[in-house]
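In response to the reviewer comment on reproducibility (Comment 2.3), we provide here a single inverse folding case reported in full, input and output, so that an independent group could reproduce the run without further information from us. The structure tokens appear first.
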């Protein structure tokens, strides 16, 4: 019987690109991957002075990149920067996202397009830009950040809901297409997480009472909860798992 000396959840010598890493869930993912030994390329549209203080440990090999996932050129340039500095790219986390709230009947086409352009088409652009590098890497993996809203219908977030359904299904299709290249693609679907994205609804007592009543474990997901599951799915500990969505939802989807 062979024994493995390497811890299957470690990322030593591996390079991970995380989009939307300036704050919130993306920052927590960047920190967790760095804790596990990864070299993290953290990318965001925000200028560096607006990044959360603890978005990445100071020093070390990690890099920050200016990225707008609504631009294919920006996605390709970011991958080029990562390859120029780090030499390879092993993992991609498609985390950058935006939300727009309001009834479907009055949502403007402009708002609808913006949410789809960032969340859904942005995930496609970034995945496509990273593909040649991921194909060249050993045991590469990708995680898309979906949402419970992509699985159940939630009022007043039509574009967001369908964009998240899209990125979770995109994980399945890419998993199938890229399996011959040895690239695994999965998704993570959190319930509500206390970040800037949910600042408005968290101030709404009626909304929160209803939301919390639907979470059997009785609390919001922390950014760290999401980051731990993302790290697991990216790592060799999940070497036989591809095309799946893991919900980090405290049981929302049980009932
Ligand atoms: N907060 C929640 O309750 C929740 C629940 C489920 C899923 N999610 C998803 O988790 C991901 C992270 O969300 P969060 O809660 O940390 O939100 P957040 O607003 O705190 O962070 C999103 C990050 O994405 C970046 N971003 C936005 N547009 C970009 C673009 N065009 N190019 C590059 N970066 C861009 C933002 O600058 C920001 O740093 C999103 O995909 C979101 O949909 C969030």
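Designed residues, in position order:
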């Amino acid at each position: 019987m062979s024994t493995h000396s390497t811890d299957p959840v470690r990322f030593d010598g591996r390079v991970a690109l995380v989009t939307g890493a300036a704050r919130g869930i993306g920052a927590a993912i960047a920190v967790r991957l760095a804790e596990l030994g990864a070299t993290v390329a953290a990318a965001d549209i925000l200028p560096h002075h607006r990044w959360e203080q603890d978005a990445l440990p100071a020093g070390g090999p990690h890099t920050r990149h200016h990225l707008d996932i609504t631009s294919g050129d920006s996605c390709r340039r970011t991958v080029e920067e990562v390859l120029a500095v780090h030499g390879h790219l092993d993992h991609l986390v498609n985390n950058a996202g935006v939300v727009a709230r309001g009834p479907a009947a009055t949502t403007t086409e402009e708002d609808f397009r913006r949410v789809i352009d960032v969340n859904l088409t942005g995930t496609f652009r970034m995945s496509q830009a990273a593909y040649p590098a991921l194909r060249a890497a050993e045991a590469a993996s990708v995680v898309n950040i979906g949402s419970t809203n992509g699985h159940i219908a939630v009022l007043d977030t039509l574009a967001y809901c369908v964009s998240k359904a899209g990125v979770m299904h995109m994980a399945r299709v890419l998993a199938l297409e890229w399996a011959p290249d040895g690239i695994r693609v999965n998704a993570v679907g959190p319930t509500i997480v206390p970040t800037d994205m949910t600042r408005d609804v968290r101030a709404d007592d009626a909304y929160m009472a209803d939301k919390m009543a639907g979470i059997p474990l009785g609390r919001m997901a922390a950014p760290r909860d999401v980051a731990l599951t993302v790290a697991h799915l990216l790592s060799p500990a999940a070497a036989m798992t591809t095309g799946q969505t893991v919900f980090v939802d405290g049981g929302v989807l049980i009932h």
